[in-house]
Write a structure and sequence with these properties.
Layout lengths: L12 H24 L6 H8 L3 H7 L3 H6 L4 H9 L7 H19 L1 H13 L1 H26 L6 H23 L7 H13 L25
Helix pairs in contact: 1-2, 2-3, 5-8, 6-7, 6-10, 7-8, 7-9, 8-9, 9-10
């Protein structure tokens, strides 16, 4: 049995103020972009709505697209990945931490999470930045994957594995947003995406038995 992790230190007053400011900026940006469009929304307008200076907005979010995309989850994802049970297959570990994070986001900020996905579909600049941030997240997670598998952080297989999983989940999220959520809930859709990867990306014709959910070629059976 692994020892329990030490409790995280309580955030300082300064940290809480920073989080509150970031949240206010993001909330203002979401409202303004939803009302008047991405291109028409300026940093100055966002700053005024959040009751901060434009320089404060730029300090917290150097890139405009990051206001809509940033959710400060990367460090938490890495920590949770490192805390997964020893010996658990890497794909199951990544599935667990990412799906838990998405489920929490949908539960805590359903409107913002849905709107963020819509912006990814509708705004080319946001979609491009989404691809970049997914790659950045992948590089961070690949370090934890390397640690758990005894490989080097710059190992090709580790990088390809992590990028493939997150890239597939990104594409599933875009697919969900393009259809306005009518293809089902996002978390089960992401779970189905990982099933496809785990099955070896096997596809069959629509008239044949579906490949997803069939025999898994690697990893333990899931209940």
């Amino acid at each position: 049995m692994t020892p329990s992790a030490a409790p995280s230190p309580r955030p300082t007053l300064r940290d809480r103020k920073k989080l509150k400011t970031r949240a206010a900026i993001r909330k203002a940006a979401y409202r303004l972009v939803a009302e008047q469009g991405y291109e028409a929304t300026t940093l100055e307008q966002i700053a005024a709505a959040a009751e901060v200076s434009p320089s404060t907005v730029a300090r917290y979010f150097p890139v405009k697209e990051d206001i809509l995309l940033s959710d400060d989850q990367d460090e938490l994802l890495v920590a949770r990945l490192r805390a997964r049970p020893a010996g658990e297959p890497p794909l199951d570990s990544l599935r667990a931490v990412v799906l838990d994070a998405v489920a929490a986001s949908l539960a805590e900020e359903p409107y913002e999470t849905t709107l963020r996905a819509r912006f990814v579909v509708e705004v080319p600049a946001v979609r491009a930045r989404f691809t970049e941030t997914t790659a950045e997240t992948g590089r961070l997670l690949s370090e934890a994957v390397a640690e758990r598998t005894g490989r080097a952080p710059d190992d090709l297989e580790v990088r390809v594995f992590t990028a493939a999983v997150l890239g597939a989940m990104r594409e599933a999220t875009v697919h969900w947003a393009e259809h306005g959520g009518r293809v089902g809930d996002l978390v089960p859709l992401l779970d189905r995406t990982v099933d496809l990867l785990q099955a070896g990306l096997t596809l069959s014709s629509p008239d044949a038995a579906p490949a997803i959910g069939g025999t898994v070629t690697s990893g333990p059976a899931r209940p």
